[in-house]
Design a protein that fits this description.
The protein is mainly α. Helices cover 80% and strands 0% of the residues. It is built from four helices and no strands. The model has no long low-confidence stretch (mean pLDDT 86).
Length: 69
C-alpha cells in the first residue's frame, strides 16, 4: 500500500506541471511522466487484476518499453 501512496504523491507533484506546451519544452519531464504512468499501471495491476481498455494499452506499451513480452 505504501507503494501506491508514493505513486499517488508523485502523480500529485507532477500533475500541475503537465501540459502539452510544458512537455514539448521539457522532454525530460515528458519522459518522467511516461515512466510514472507506466509505474502506476504496473503497480495497480498487482491490486486490481488484469487491466482492460486504455489501462491495458498503457500496460502493453510499458511492457514493450521495458522489453518484456
Amino acid at each position: 500500500m505504501a507503494d501506491l501512496q508514493s505513486l499517488n504523491s508523485s502523480w500529485n507533484d507532477m500533475k500541475p506541471h503537465l501540459s502539452m506546451r510544458g512537455l514539448r519544452n521539457d522532454p525530460d519531464r515528458a519522459d518522467a511522466a511516461l515512466n510514472l504512468v507506466f509505474s502506476i499501471e504496473t503497480k495497480t495491476n498487482d491490486f486490481c487484476g488484469q487491466p482492460s481498455g486504455s489501462d491495458l494499452a498503457l500496460r502493453l506499451i510499458a511492457e514493450q518499453r521495458e522489453g518484456i513480452k
